[in-house]
Design a protein that fits this description.
With 506 residues, this protein is of the alpha/beta class. Helix content is 34%, strand content 22%. It contains 14 helices and 16 strands. β9, α8 (327-336) and β10 form a beta-alpha-beta unit.
Length: 506
């Protein structure tokens, strides 16, 4: 008889003696259940062995976990001692809910770490990225190191949440169980590591960077004055304008970015000071918010801009590229409908705060599809965006989903005619090089290329049917102020622009 069977028999006899003191159905059921278990495991020794192996592995894993936790707590208690044997102050790790109120965020591709440092690399890394068909080369001279890491050690690639427009949503991070060296400069604040797409374009800046960053900073309890949040980018921001068409210009919308209570300096991580450490760092950004309108309200409040719905304007946006050819005709049509507050603006010639004021004081915004229409989100709730596009010439409507979530009504206005502006195309795409007549004919007869930048119809100018515009405006719920206030850049200047445009197309 095996040892296990002997043990079972002994236990059975003991149990039987104790059960004999009682009588009834309960005693018989217990006895039968035990007999069945002994017989089952005696005939299924493989199942018994698997059970014993599983319990053994679980016990060993629990012992290992308790050992690691105990050693970590022991190391933490040593780190929190104010002085070492030599009397020098030891640097201590910073933990959640400390005196500066950081709340860790770890969800949906957003990760928080403590004691994040920027250090020099012993060997530089050469990087290459593709931007609108152009190869961009840059060199990473520094690395990101996270100290006091409990369970990680060595270099790991951390994939994070970010814009689907970027293939760079990952960070190479070196983890170390050691303490921060005493030679490093330590800042008791939070660094947010962001993968930007095209911050010079207000639509991409707002959708891909600002809104997700706002959500993460708010969730981390860092959206408050005096936070001095540090923004650190994944991609370089100092490349020449010719190489990336100025798309990575990080200064264009700084005044909006500063509403997140950031430091004035924000740049790619390897341009940060060497041996700089932050008590906490957040990698990845994700737009998760119940009411996006709160983001607009926060930004306008920071800029000290008031929204007066009763003084709203009908604002026509004129652009340097993708222009409205018959804009003067549209102005006269709007004026005939008693929309007394009307203006024509070129946002590209204005500062950021002025652009925000224009949007906040508009009740109707009219413009050709382009990044500037993202400002429509800053209009009062219930306002209207009339987007002009020409889908039949490969340039469609775009902003419906990007403004309706801000309680803005979206209207589609099809351009009656569109003309390719070859001067715009040559300047923006061909870097000033002219396009021959033969190539123009070929481009006109073929579909656009893969890149949206190299779409000749993107650089077209439109003629809008005034009756179609009036039809849309007639459905707009708009309270007209009693005072007449038609604001136009200059009626004479508009006429002069029309003469110039007409000569350009002749």
């Amino acid at each position: 008889m095996h040892a296990f069977e002997q043990a079972c028999v002994v236990h059975y006899l003991t149990m039987n003696l104790s059960l004999n003191r009682n009588s009834g159905t309960e005693t018989r059921c217990c006895r039968l259940a035990f007999v069945w278990l002994v017989g089952y495991f005696n005939s299924h020794k493989t199942c018994l062995n698997c059970l014993i192996l599983t319990l053994t592995v679980a016990a060993l894993a629990m012992i290992r976990l308790l050992f690691i936790v105990s050693s970590d707590f022991q190391r933490i208690s040593m780190l929190y001692r104010n002085t070492s044997a030599t009397g020098s102050v030891k640097r201590s790790p910073v933990w959640p809910y400390n005196n500066y109120g950081f709340h860790p965020v770890n969800e949906k591709g957003v990760y928080s770490f403590w004691n994040v440092c920027i250090e020099a690399r012993s060997e530089f890394i050469q990087r290459e990225t593709d931007f609108l068909g152009q190869k961009i080369h840059f060199q990473e001279t520094k690395q990101i190191v996270i100290y006091n890491s409990f369970y990680r050690d060595g270099v790991q690639k951390v994939y994070v949440a970010g814009s689907h427009n970027s293939p760079w949503n990952q960070w190479d991070i070196r983890f170390s169980r050691n303490s921060i060296p005493s030679t490093h400069a330590f800042h008791n604040t939070t660094a947010f590591f962001v993968v930007q797409t095209c911050p010079v374009n207000f639509h991409h800046f707002w959708i891909d960077e600002f809104v997700p960053l706002f959500c993460v900073i708010k969730k981390a309890n860092r959206l408050q004055p005096g936070s001095r949040n540090q923004i650190i980018y994944r991609l370089p921001t100092n490349l020449t304008k010719d190489s990336i068409c100025g798309c990575y210009n990080k200064t264009t919308f700084e005044e909006v970015l500063f509403s997140l209570y950031t430091t004035t300096f924000h740049d790619v991580f390897y341009h940060m000071n060497t041996n700089t450490c932050y008590s906490s760092g957040v990698f990845g950004i994700s737009a998760v918010i119940d009411n996006p309108r709160k983001i607009v309200e926060h930004t306008l409040k920071y800029m000290n801009i008031s929204v007066h719905q009763e003084e709203g304007y009908v604002t026509i946006i004129q652009r340097n590229f993708r222009r409205i050819i018959n804009i003067y005709e549209l102005m006269q049509a709007i004026n005939s409908m008693d929309f007394r507050n009307m203006r024509v603006v070129n946002l590209e010639t204005m500062g950021v705060v002025e652009q925000a004021k224009i949007a906040a004081s508009s009740r109707v915004m009219i413009g050709v599809q382009g990044a500037g229409l993202q400002w429509a989100a800053f209009m009062p709730p219930g306002s209207n965006l009339i987007e002009i596009a020409w889908p039949y010439k490969h340039w469609g409507f775009y902003f419906s989903s990007y403004v309706t979530q801000y309680q803005i009504v979206h209207h589609q206005l099809y351009a009656q005619h569109v003309r390719v502006n070859w001067s715009s195309y040559e300047h923006m795409v061909r870097h000033g090089n002219p396009v021959s007549m033969e190539e123009r004919i070929e481009l006109l007869q073929s579909r656009p290329k893969t890149s949206s930048l190299d779409n000749i119809w993107k650089w077209g100018d439109a003629i809008v049917n005034k009756d179609d515009l009036i039809s849309i405006l007639s459905t707009v719920d708009f309270t007209i102020p009693q005072t007449q206030d038609i604001v136009i850049e200059s009626e004479v200047s508009v006429k002069n622009q029309l003469k110039f445009w007409n000569s350009s197309f002749s």
